[in-house]
């Protein structure tokens, strides 16, 4: 088992080195596991010791940029649509499996066909954030530092620092206790 883990880690580091050659800024010790799919342009970056696990898709089109901070990870099965917008994920962020994150999405506001209406906005996730399994983050969302988001929540708008959020749409459930407090 230990040998298998070491081989997986080696493959992830080799994959990160290949992505570096393709123009992705990859920090020291960052890992991109086999099966992860990153479509990126200039200005996209993975921080030191960040990890993108298998079956993660991050799609940025021309002009779109994403940054994943140091010591952060995206668990398997995450789908991240940056498009031509910007996504910033801070340091020490743990994102659970099945995340759906959209910097652009169809919009139901206005008249006409839904497939022709879009909401496009940057998304920002602060540092020291935990996002549970199968959370959906919609365009324009801001998750401040020191926030936890419960599984299956739908994030819209701004989530203020120091709270556990949950529900559809996500709302504050209880304050978080700070370590050492």
From TrEMBL:
It comes from the Bacteria. Keywords: Acyltransferase, Repeat, Transferase. The keyword Transferase applies. Gene3D superfamilies: Hexapeptide repeat proteins (2.160.10.10). SUPFAM superfamilies: Trimeric LpxA-like enzymes (SSF51161). Belongs to the transferase hexapeptide repeat family. This is DapH/DapD/GlmU-related protein.
């Amino acid at each position: 088992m230990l040998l298998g883990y070491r081989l997986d880690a080696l493959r992830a580091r080799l994959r990160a080195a290949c992505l570096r050659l393709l123009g992705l800024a990859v920090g020291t010790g960052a890992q991109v596991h086999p099966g992860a799919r990153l479509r990126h342009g200039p200005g996209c970056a993975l921080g030191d010791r960040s990890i993108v696990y298998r079956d993660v898709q991050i799609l940025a089109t021309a002009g779109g940029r994403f940054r994943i901070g140091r010591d952060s990870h995206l668990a398997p099965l995450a789908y991240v649509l940056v498009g031509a917008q910007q996504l910033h994920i801070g340091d020490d962020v743990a994102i659970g499996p099945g995340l759906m994150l959209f910097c652009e999405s169809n919009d139901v506001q206005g008249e006409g066909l839904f497939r022709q209406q879009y909401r496009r906005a940057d998304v920002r996730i602060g540092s020291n954030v935990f996002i549970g399994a199968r959370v959906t983050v919609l365009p324009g969302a801001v998750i401040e530092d020191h926030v936890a988001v419960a599984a299956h929540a739908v994030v819209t708008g701004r989530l203020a620092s120091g709270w556990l959020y949950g529900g559809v749409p996500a709302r504050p459930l209880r304050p978080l206790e700070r370590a050492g407090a």
